[in-house]
Amino acid sequence: MSNDFGEVLFSPESSSRHELQAPPLSPSIPALQPKKNTVLVSHGRPPWYAEDGQRISDAFVIGVAGGSASGKTHVARQIVRKLGSIPTVIILSQDSFYKFHNEEELALAHANQLDFDHPDAIDMTMFAACLADLKACRQSNIPVYSFAQHQRLEETKYLYGATIIIAEGIMALTDPRLRALYDLKVFVQCDSDLMLARRIKRDVKERGRDVNGILDQYLRHVKPSYDNFVLPSSTYADIIVPGSNNDVAIDLISTHIRKQLLERSNKLRQKIAVPHKYISSHSGSSTPESILEDLDLTILKSTPQLEGIYTILRDITTSRQDFIFFTDRLSTLLVEHALQHLPFVPKTVTTPVGVEAHGTKMNAQYVCGVSILRSGGALERGFRRVINDVPIGSLLIQSENKSGEAMLLHVMLPYYVRYRHLAEDAYVFLLDAQIGTAAAAFMAVRILLDHGVKEDHIIFITFIVARGGGVSVLKRAFPGVKIVCGAVDDEMQEGWLEGYKGEGNPEGKGRTVWVMKPGMGQIGDRYYI
């Protein structure tokens, strides 16, 4: 399984192929490890799009440059610590983008004769392309470089979902393509003797180098590069930070970043849940047929069997065993019905009695499922019963305590969704138990689009939809998305969630919530607990 999925957002060092671990849900920042290309999460990713589904804000990008061992990575981590409880941060190292070396170059590298401190040693085109993707809220698969082998490895690291990106490296400010992407440019200035001492200590301890080789490389390549390329790039910096005793500078940078994030904040859930955004039937009827006409939903045909299943699932006295059984049965029916949205082509086969029969076969190269945790997991068993040989990924999207906004906390997607050239041909079944305000559904669809999945290749499967909820805004923003459901509930009732101090409630009743009626309750809780 670890070769089929990639996950971001929760581990301090997330690997594109080799890690699948449960996400910590505490709001504290994970311990900062001395590794590069780090993903740090303390709060999650708030909506980065408007009610029309279009992106309205990019990630905030900071470029941190300075001499070798000047303290660039330390400054980046100090900024993160000073910011405290903030959305997702990626620290992206220039070192990942060293060019691939041939055998002759490798021999020079192992003899400390290859110049790694010249701008030409960095694949600036790839660096800028990966950074541009992350800034534009798209996924990126960045290379992995081994200092011990002096070589770029075959594996890549999958990154997605950052609100803040810190790009650090000695050449971070030298290339105009990179400078154009930065919202804030920082140069770390440090005494040359201190940088040399730090470099010797680091290369001996972390990279297995000998002191003579380090000094030879420093005098031959590092110092000339600093004088000719690195130091002159400081003229492009917005702020110069000392390599030590830099608390004041870190405070100024952190204050500026907080202000920028506040200006970019977007309150979406209220916009898609308020009544004047809803679409009602032209005829005034509330039958499934009229809803289908207005919202272009695919609704299971009502039968006594289907009504009986929903009666059992809505009943609060239904045992957990029966609830699981009939949930799996309903999800199987829904997935079978949703298969009609996949492409099929004619196919002729020969039967066991030697007669040709004309039929069809599925014509989709890549098919997968993605659950919106945790209620979406209730559809996974039914999905497996119908399509048993495709991967299922997951998204953890939860409501923020105070505002109620959807927050992206965890992404684990199948292999061919993580690569844009494959995602364009993928068909994705999104699984969630219900669409009420549609805040989670909105974010899930937006995530898939960011990865390159085509809108008309997304098939959303759900048990119930609230006609008076955000599904109308969802369909207006993403008309190509297919929604398959078993029932439509008319009412969304507004109320207060006790225990939280939300905005706009001076009595302290909590934040606003919307409850689907008659609904099926907390489906995830009823299925798993």
From TrEMBL:
GO terms for molecular function: ATP binding; uridine kinase activity. Belongs to the uridine kinase family. The keyword Magnesium does not apply. Residues 61-243 form the Phosphoribulokinase/uridine kinase domain. It comes from the Eukaryota. This is Uridine kinase. It catalyses: uridine + ATP = UMP + ADP + H(+); cytidine + ATP = CMP + ADP + H(+). Residues 302-494 form the Phosphoribosyltransferase domain. Its EC number is 2.7.1.48. It is an enzyme of class 2 (transferase). It comes from Pholiota conissans. Pfam families: PRK, UPRTase. The keyword Repeat does not apply. Pathway: Pyrimidine metabolism; UMP biosynthesis via salvage pathway; UMP from uridine: step 1/1; Pyrimidine metabolism; CTP biosynthesis via salvage pathway; CTP from cytidine: step 1/3. Keywords: ATP-binding, Kinase, Nucleotide-binding, Transferase. InterPro entries: P-loop_NTPase, PRK/URK, PRTase-like, PRTase_dom, Uridine_kinase-like.
